[in-house]
Structure formats: C-alpha cells, structure tokens
Write the structure tokens for this entry.
Amino acid sequence: MELFKPLETKGEEIKKVKTDAPSEHVRVLIVGSGPAGYTAAIYAARANLNPVLYEGLQPGGQLTTTTEVDNFPGYPDGVTGPVMMEDLKGQAVRFGTDVRFGMATAADLSKEPYSVTIDDDKVITADALIIATGATAKYLGLESEEKFKGQGVSACATCDGFFYKGQDVAVVGGGDTACEEATYLSGICNKVYMIVRKPYLRASKAMQDRVMSTKNIEVLFEHSTKEILGDSNGVTGVSLKKESGEEVKVDITGFFVAIGHQPNSDIFKDFIDMDETGYIQTQPGTPKTNIPGVFACGDVQDKHYRQAVTAAGTGCMAALDAERYLGTRIF
Ligand code: NDP
C-alpha cells in the first residue's frame, strides 16, 4: 500500500505527506508555542476562530531554556522564561485555544485547505495557517562535538549547567546568548572560558560589561575551536587555535555552544519563500507569506530582532491578518 504521495512543489525536492493518515479540519492552525504562537492563539481565540495550537518538541519554545527575562513589558520584577511561557499558555487556553502536544513533521501548502502532518501520523487541514516554529540553536559541526553531545557538550547552560557545579567550562560565541550563558554558568562553575573568534564581542554593551566584570569569566578573543577532547567519561578539554596559528589546550569538563540559531522552517521550504538561511520571507510590515492564508510570526521570520516581545507582536499581527483573511473567504 502506498503511504505517501508526491505533491506539487516550488522546488525540485518532492515533499511527501501521508495519504492514509486520519485527518481533522480546523479553522486556524497554529504551529509553535513560543511567544509568537501563544500570542497568535490569544488573539485568534478571542476572535472566535477556535484555534488549534501544536506545541512542537520544546513546549514554550526557546524561552523555557532561559533564566530571568527582564525585558518583557509587564513584569516589573522580571520573570523566569518557563513561568512567562506558562502565563502565556494559560492566557491562550483561557480564551479557548486547543493546545496540543505534537510536532509538525510535513506540510502540503500546494492547495487549500492547507495540511500539516503531526508526528508523522495525523493530518490537520486548516483554512488559515500560522507558522510560529521559531529557531533552534546551531552547533559548530565538529565530529568531536557530535560525539560528546549530552556527555559534556550542550547548547543550553540553563538546562545543563547544574551538572558542572564547581567545574571549569567553556562557552563558544560572542553574542548576547553566549554572554548570558557565560554569566549564568559563572554562578555555578569554578571558571568559565568564553571562546570568541573575533577580537571583540558582538553582544550588547550591557552584556559585555557584565561579562567583563565577572571575575571567573575569561574571554579568549581570536580563538577558534579545533576539537573537543574527551574520554569514555565525557569532555576533558578543548583544543583551540589562535589567530596567530598557535594551538592551545584548555582543560574543561563542559562545552556550551552559543553561536546563533537556525530557523525551523524546513517542512515549508518547498512552498514558502525564504531567504538563503531559511528565514521565512514575509511581506514588509506584515506576517503575510507568499501563500494567501499562510502567515509567519516570531523568530522563524525574524533574523534581526529575535526578542520575545517582537515575536509576540508579530503573533498578534498574524492572528489579526488571519481573521481578516477568513472574513473575506467562503469555505
Ligand atoms: P548572534 O548571531 O548575535 O551571535 C553569534 C555569536 O556566535 C557571534 O559572536 C558569532 O561570531 C559566533 N559564531 C557564529 N558562528 C560561529 C562559529 N562557527 N564558530 C565560532 N563562533 C561563531 O546570536 P545570539 O544567539 O547571541 O543572539 C541572537 C539575537 O538574540 C541577537 O539579536 C541578540 O541580541 C538577541 N538576544 C538577546 C538577549 C537579551 O536581550 N537578553 C539574549 C540572547 C540573545 P561573529 O561575531 O564572529 O560572527
């Protein structure tokens, strides 16, 4: 029996969606559960659009891996990422959003209604689709990094930092994420090395000042990672190459990667216009994609701002535009 059928696509590659999977039709489908997805859900639910939201692999999105969020309006004393995401979820549910656990694994946007496969075994068709799938941490791509993932190599200090209490660790990257991770780890670990390939940090001035004034953080400028060293017990060190060509070895037990993110747009790539790095291209000033009735919000379409509050703002815009779109259509 043929489980998959090829679809009409923009590109060469043929995306396959199960044809015999059980299906369900909804008015508005939201994929993703960060600030963008939940805000879209709040607005769509309040507009009586009965949104169904699939949370994805990391319910609550990237903010669930951060500690203190001090820059989201409305929390004068700050809030932790996980608490903030629970608040947003609670607000979406309060207005009737059907929040479900499940991962979007394929999509067919070649015809209406648009369909998205969940967990490879259920198809949801929707009159309007809001993509809020966010972005995922990037890795360096070294073989040794892959080898020690989960055994000393991590992309989330707040998730794994606890395991390196009192030990020496390294964070690679020079942006805000790397500085934030290094600062967090400095409160748990004995010593934190920051491995920065440029002669300067890219992070905001406030974050740079924080790093530079933390006694147990040492920034290794103009160093790049050659190899992560270890044995059967996990990471034991990292071999670095200086700009001058000289190689140095640093003893560490934890290696935290904080070099940026990749948008989670892969399953839509055959249908939706994207830039060369996979960020969904929206019509300027709107969440509209090249497909009518398909909207994108949050980090999956934003490589510049990437803040929780900007993601929430575009989530609101996506729901308002979905409502307007549905109001002009007869299904
Ligand atoms: P960025 O893209 O800003 O920084 C990535 C860092 O990793 C850069 O220093 C970059 O170096 C380095 N890097 C990239 N690839 C490699 C590589 N292969 N090897 C070594 N180093 C590498 O990503 P962030 O995740 O830090 O930040 C993303 C956005 O989110 C930013 O706009 C940031 O301001 C924001 N943000 C805000 C926070 C807050 O306000 N609290 C917290 C975290 C992020 P190079 O400079 O040489 O390219």
In short: The chain has two domains: 4-136+261-327, 139-257. The CA atoms of residues 96 and 256 lie 39 Å apart.
